[in-house]
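> tool_call: predict_assembly(chains=two)
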Amino acid sequence: MADGNGPGRITIAGLAFAFLMLVLIIVSVWLFIARPWWFPQLASVRGGDIDGVFSAVLIVTGIAFVGVQGVLGYFVARYGSRGTERAGYWHDNPKAEAGLLIGTAVIMTILVFMGQRVWASIYFTDAPPGTLEVQATGQQFQWYFHYAGPDGVFGRTDAKLISDSNTLGLDRKDPASKDDLITPEMHVVVDKPVKVRLRSKDVIHSFFLPNMRYKQDAVPGMSIQVGFTPTKTGKFEIACAELCGNGHYRMRAFLTVEKSEQDLNNWIKEQLAQQAGN
Amino acid sequence: MQVQHATEHAHPQLGFWRKYVFSTDHKIIGIQYMITAMAMAVVGGLLSMLMRLQLAWPSQAWPALGKIFPVAFAGNVMEPSFYVSLVTMHGTIMVFFLFTAVLTGGFGNFLIPLQIGARDMAFPFLNALSYWVFLLSCIVIIAALFVAGGAPLGGWTAYAPLSAVGDASGPGEGAGMTLWITALGLFTVSGLMGGLNYVTTILTMRTKGLSMMRLPLTQWSLLITAVLGLLAFPVLLAAAILLTFDRVGGTSFFIPSGIIMNNRLLGNSGGHPLLWQHLFWFFGHPEVYIVILPAMGMASDILSTFCRKPIFSYKMMVYSMVSIAGLSFIVWGHHMFVSGMSPFLGSVFTMTTLVIAVPSAVKTFNWLGTIWGARIRFTTASLFAIGFISVFVSGGLSGIFLGSSAADIYLQDTYFVVAHFHLVMAIAPLFAAFAGIYYWFPKMFGRFMNEMLGKLHFWGSLIGVYAVFFPMHILGITGHMRRIYDPLFYDFLKPDKNINIFVSVSAFCLATVQVVFLLNFIISIFAGKRVKENNPWQATTLEWETPCPTGHGNFGDELPVVHRWAFDYSVPGAKHDFVPQTVPPGAEKV
């Protein structure tokens, strides 16, 4: 029998452990329900899906967490001894094990499929027509954004042309590059899908837009395209999430989500005029 | 005492140096590993204290530290490059030079021959060599802190090309990085020598009657770990050699064409940065299990001993460890979901990763099953084994978020990851190692550690680790990136200031509690209560048949013969509530 010779003793150590588990459960449940700190403001379509996956996993793991820590605390309080009592001699329950095994497998399978639906919507879906394309290039410790400009065609870039004044090596002889804008700020339009083409000049960086729930590494030698659709206007922070050297922490940029396409075009024009003036 | 005399008689001529320093005795080597790893832990721990100081109070001037570290605290404020080198060195030291070393090197060496009824390892000289190479690797990695440019700043994962292009990418990436690679290469070689020894010894030198399915779970875990090490370490060694070629030989394994460092175009071509990540994590993920499996094995055995109850579902415990080990080789890509790796691979790695939750859940269920109906004796060792379960579960569950590639897009490289891996592969193994130290200390030194100080250490540690690492999940949810020098640089992280202060203050308290452990450990070696019997915890496994401390050769003239499994606690009808493995069937009733 489970209980050996009579019930176990309640000990101070056992009670103390159970009390700590109780505190752990209460504090963690409070943190996740009252949410005194939580995700940054959500501002993209994909962000809602990602937060949804997070919530689903949170419910499953939350139940498991409370259950296991609670049972552990209870058992430790309930089955103490002072040194002489005997425990039960039993050590198998294949049915319970099989149930647990299958149960866990089923829950994990459901979580995999839920997550993969979102993953596929981000990675396996082609950009819709009319998507704004922006090239984002990381270098120690700065982001640069390259807009094709009104002609919609990106000018040629060449690593050999890179200099202090031409950070991405844009070939100004290429006619397509005439209206190209290269700037340390990113501007996009609300509700209009954006495709970001990520590159790096030197080491690996990671393009992190907390409000958009967007993160993708920028790898030298690779050109990686992942998009998002902003749903709120405003100014948001961009960070680097991959350790890229001693200035990693200050590799920040800003993303402005404009109200309309017109606002974006005006901004591009202003920037081009400003750069020409310099 | 007669036994000890007989065995020592075989080696009467050994002086102090041969007996305690240049020893080939597995027990001495185990203790050497353990004490070296503890010294490394002190260094690694102090580095993390400096990190926490900076994170809680960024840009604060610390005149006292400015005097001690005039370069790292130029102008009394911590330099950003120093901060990232702290990150790198803390991770490297803790993962390799503490956890891998103390669990496999320390406990593996000490326990394998004792628990399988052998007189020593299969290759004692190779074993000693493994320790001395390990010590050399420790010296080399510490030296990285003191060379010009300082320690490397690429994190313990040393992603290329940051790590591959020399000091063009930052201070510390020159000489410091070279020493880092050298140290890891040496460590790997040492690990391979150890692993070879463990596998051979466990497979070929078990005493009569000790079939595989009678092994204590500690031995199973050490065997599986050694196999993992033999398969994973060579990959790291190969990667380290290729990285060295890139750095000094002009090759381009990890460096693509068109890299521009400081506006200078490098001449490399043809390499791929993701190759490093694949190689590193092909090693790196099994490495996680190299750390956690021995912890699981030890915690299981110690739990059963102090529960006075057989481990629940021994066979499933073995099978789940084997399957975790097997799966650990096909999940490495979950470290790379947003790395630019094909997103199709992301889907595959999500599936394989979440499969690992199944054997992990089985193990947790079995630990709870072991405690159900137990009669727990609350020693420091048993408390740490119980604490191990709690932190393993907390850390394991947060892994499900990260294993789901969609959720990982946001959580990758945030403090959520830091919280997860600290709980599951640092604190859980640490708790198991503490349980092991309190438990086997009498066997090592013939004395007990002080139980009152031990309990203070446990309660302080349990509260401390949750106060330090649980809030880090919340930091991660707010988007707090890891490895950043100044979180207040970002507006969206400003609300995290108080969490960071809370975590740092908790970390300082947690570190203070560890001083209690260190003092207890050192003082108890010389002045702890003497152990008067072979088997003070009334355990069943073979090491408890030998005197405390065990003499050279471990067992008397005759090796023990095993008649039963390692978990006969509270056998109905038996005279005592434990039946050692050497008791023949039927004899337990007398």
